[in-house]
Amino acid sequence: MFSIDFIRDNFTFILSALPITLLITFLSLIFSTLLGGVLAWVIIRNVPYVKYLVRVFISFGRSVPMLVMLYFVFYVWPWIASGLLGGPQDTPFSYKLSPLVAAVASFSVVFSAYFAETFRSAWNAVEKGQREAAWSIGLTGFTQFRRIIFPQAAVSALPNYTSVLIDLIKDTSLVYTITVVDVMAKANIAAARGFHYVEAYCIVLIIYIALCLVFTRILRHIEVYLSNRWKSHTQKVVPSHSFWGKKYVQK
Amino acid sequence: MNAQPLLSFDDLLFIVPKLLENLSVTLGITFASLLLGLALGLLAAVLQFSRLLLLRLLAKAYTDVLRGAPLALLILLFFFGGKLILSTLGLPATLISDTTFAILSISVGISPYFAEMMRSAWNAVDIGQKEALRSLNIPWHIGVLRVIFPQGLIIAIPNFGNLLINLVKMTSLVNIIGIVDIFGRAQKISQNSYGAKQVAAFISVILIYWLLNIIIFYLTGRIEKKYQYLLE
Asked: Which residues contact B168 (CB under 8 A, 6 or more apart)?
């Protein structure tokens, strides 16, 4: 039977694992943004030979399911590592990654592909004339990027960046399958005491929805702020209005 | 320790046909939830253009809330919730199969994305087309079907390809409620061999998913290129 009492009693217990979820999210966000930036740079600059590798990597990252990737890094990686690197005395267990590291590694691999696509399309969204104008007034390569292209590209990349980040947050709910004690795992622990699975999962659902709404709001703030600050000839990004925040609709 | 080779070609040849037996499960769930998800997404997208404020808010809330809900959670919630409802009503627990719950939850999970895709495609069709329909006195339903829908379809295809790939990836989650798809079969193979075939099994799973998604990429890319001229 559905019991409200269970939700009331166990909400804080399940919420106490939120830092783990946030930690995984932030670490993999940082790593995958950096790696995605490098991948996008390779694709944009058309680096010979490396670009084919990067293309294969992006197609790989986009087409392998997150669950398979997590299993692969956590359960299969020790075997591969001991086979490739280890001597005859090594066991796979000495190469076992800690669950947190495995989670962050697999999220970084998969989401760097998405971020690379995002950055590449943002780069392409900046008008070609902007770059030519910057060359013609004699800006050097990095200054050109910093002063001209980045402000415009960042504004047009942010909506996509937000949606990939939301996907990342949603996918962190899978790390309980590789024994990280996150919100989901705590919910399972709490639910197993009295078979209150539905209530426990409702709590997790509320937490995740709140988390996603908060992140969406923060990034939309940044987007509106940046697009007002760095006014340019790029097409104005109009945030899609929702009933959670109607005052952010631009007229 | 390393008496056996880590990954032999024979193992792959042995495992891949076994996994392909379960490809029908993955593809069946994908196809069923694609149809249901498109229907739900269409409903949500149409309601967003509704004249009634209440319906508009409802559709908006539906898409906003479900975009933040992890799919693994939705699958578990539908599964356990469905069983709870069935047992409360005094019906046998096997009345609705696990696959049905999986399809329902995946299509609910993907439907906000489909709704968003349809809404943006509708908005991307040039407004002059709609004005032309009105000025030529073409009936609204015929105009939508023959003029606006084909253009919106071409605009939506790149987006649709991405969502289809996401959908194929999402179906790997059904094995957390015990449905044996490709990934579940690989887990079984690796358990039956006490871990000896683990590496080969998981690598072949990755290869199959990769191949499947490369095919989708290729097809959507070709369709996009072929009909691009219609938009210009």
From this structure: A65, B26, B30, B209, B212, B213, B216
Q: Cβ–Cβ of B68/A208 closer than 8 Å? A: yes
Q: Which domain holds residue A130?
A: 4-248
The answer to whether A66 faces chain B, any CB pair under 8 Å, is: yes
Whether residue A52 is predicted with pLDDT greater than 90 in this model: the reply is: yes
For chain A, what is the domain count?
1
- Tell me the residues of chain B between 79 and 138 that have a Cβ less than 8 Å away from chain A: 80-81, 84, 88
Q: Is B2 in Cβ contact with A82 (below 8 Å)?
A: yes
Q: Which ipTM was obtained for this model?
A: 0.86
Going through A20-106 in order, the beta strands assigned E by DSSP cover: none
Cβ neighbors of B166 (< 8 A, separation 6 or more) are B110, B113
Question: Which 3 state secondary structure label does DSSP give A234?
Answer: coil
Q: Which helix (H) or strand (E) holds B195?
A: none
B65 contacts A243? CB cut-off 8 A: no
Query: Taking the CA of residue B176 as centre, how many other CA atoms within 13 Å lie in the half-sphere pointing to its CB?
Result: 27
Tokens read off for B112: 């906000």
Q: Which string of DSSP letters, residue by residue, matches B6-26?
A: SS-HHHHHHHHHHHHHTHHHH
Beta-carbon contacts of A171 under 8 Å, excluding residues fewer than 6 positions away, are: A66, A107, B70
- What is the number of alpha carbons within 13 Å of residue A157 lying toward its C-beta? 24
Confidence at residue A251, expressed as pLDDT on a 0 to 100 scale: 43
CATH number at residue A83: 1.10.3720.10
Confidence of residue A250 (pLDDT cuts 50, 70, 90): very low
Fold of domain B24-179: MetI-like fold (1.10.3720)
Write down the pTM of the prediction: 0.86
CA dist B33 and B111 (Å) reads 9
